[in-house]
From TrEMBL:
InterPro entries: TAT_signal. It holds the Pfam family SBP_bac_6. It comes from Roseovarius ramblicola. Keywords: Signal. SUPFAM superfamilies: Periplasmic binding protein-like II. Residues 1-31 form the signal peptide. This is PotD/PotF family extracellular solute-binding protein. It comes from the Bacteria.
């Protein structure tokens, strides 16, 4: 599977795997009945802040989690036969409808049980209920929680928010920006963002002369960058120290740790306009789905309800060193748990308007062709 999502390349699985190792190897027998539950997820859901209270609520039950490094990596585990191991899978929004459900790897959720939770979500998720939570046949196939716009980041002491939003991706084509920015090398996202910079739709086939537009854009962006790394801490440090004034590919997710430390001049930017339906930003939204385990755990759907509760929604939002909005913030009880510094860290003041300017993340249509070009230009 080549369409790798690199939003969190820097996150290792060592802690999660260590926890699994100490508890013993996973096997189909561990994912069964009401006394066991295994979740395959992005980091955060595997933290003690989230799993600890759930374990306390189910004494004697074995609750295990493993954090993945990409959506396709996690999905391929299910394809390889691990539907008998896992009870829940937590990946980004296109995969449930486009691959997991059509391939029979996940199963529908009980609408009577879960649809009421949408009523307490933020407006963009509840009216109507978030579209990609549903399969083409209308079945509910995943519950949304964490999300965030993902475009680029600037130091507002050097480039104002207004200027950055107005210029959008053209900022990185300006010759005056040469050696003033870095590239956070989350490859799949870089490819999406380079398409948008070139005026192309990354979610439709890129062919013919448009491939040359993409190549020229990749050449310009890589050629003008001062720093390339997949380490968001290193990138934020360079931004704070004045080594660079902006970085290409980033968002609330990458800016939030610095902002929470009081460095609010580090700001994620969503362009005001762009080439796809007038939009220039992209938003990721995680969905958690029930794996089509032949011997399922009753605890799986209990856990899905558990993470909707105010205290655990907050824990999911603020865990593992990066901070993100959650759609449950439409619930006053959830919002009451966030203080002003936390809301500022995730840029809650502009979140709604940035969502309006963002496309839903989808699978890059011409990924294989574009990654070849991208890799050539990155190496050169």
């Amino acid at each position: 599977m080549s369409n790798k999502l690199s939003r969190r390349q820097f996150v290792g699985r060592s802690a999660a795997l260590a926890g699994l190792a100490t508890a013993g190897p996973l096997s189909p027998a561990f994912a069964a009945r009401s006394d066991r539950m295994n979740i395959l997820c992005w980091e955060g859901y595997n933290s003690d802040q989230v799993l600890g209270p759930f374990r306390d609520a189910h004494p004697g039950a074995t609750i295990r989690a493993e954090s993945g490094t990409s959506d396709p990596d996690m999905i391929n585990k299910l394809r390889a036969g691990e539907t008998s191991v896992w009870d829940l899978i937590n990946v980004n929004q296109p995969w449930a409808r486009d691959q997991l459900y059509p391939e029979g790897l996940i199963k529908p959720l009980n609408k009577d049980r879960f649809l009421p939770y949408f009523d307490k979500m933020l407006l963009s998720f509840k009216n109507p209920p978030y579209e990609l939570s549903f399969a083409d046949d209308g079945e509910l196939i995943g519950m949304p929680q964490r999300y965030g716009p993902f475009s680029f980041v600037v130091n507002t002491d050097k480039i104002s928010r207004e200027t950055a939003e107005e210029q959008g991706w053209n900022l990185f084509l300006d010759p005056a920006m040469k050696d003033r920015y870095g590239v956070l090398t989350y490859d799949n996202w870089n490819i999406m963002h380079m398409c948008l910079t070139a005026g192309l739709n990354p979610f439709e086939p890129v062919e013919g002369a448009d491939l040359e537009k993409f190549r020229e854009t990749a050449q310009t962006i890589f050629g003008g960058s001062k720093l390339m790394t997949d380490d968001l801490v290193a990138m934020n440090t360079a931004l704070i120290n004045g080594e660079i004034d902006a970085y290409f590919t980033g968002g609330t997710y990458t800016a939030s740790p610095a902002r929470y430390d009081g460095l609010t001049n580090v700001r994620a930017i969503t362009p005001r306009s762009g080439p796809v339906d007038g939009k220039g930003g992209v938003v990721w939204i995680e969905l958690t789905s029930a794996v089509n385990n032949p011997d399922p755990s009753d605890l799986a759907q209990e856990f899905l309800e558990f993470v909707q509760t105010p205290e655990i929604s907050k824990a999911v939002a603020f865990t593992e060193g990066t901070y993100n909005p959650v759609c449950q913030m439409g619930n006053e009880e959830v919002m009451a748990l966030f203080d002003n510094e936390e809301l500022d860290a995730i840029q809650m003041d502009t979140l709604a308007e940035e969502m309006e300017r963002s496309l839903d993340y989808q699978v890059v249509a011409s990924y294989d062709t574009l990654i070849d070009i991208y890799t050539q230009e990155r190496r050169s």
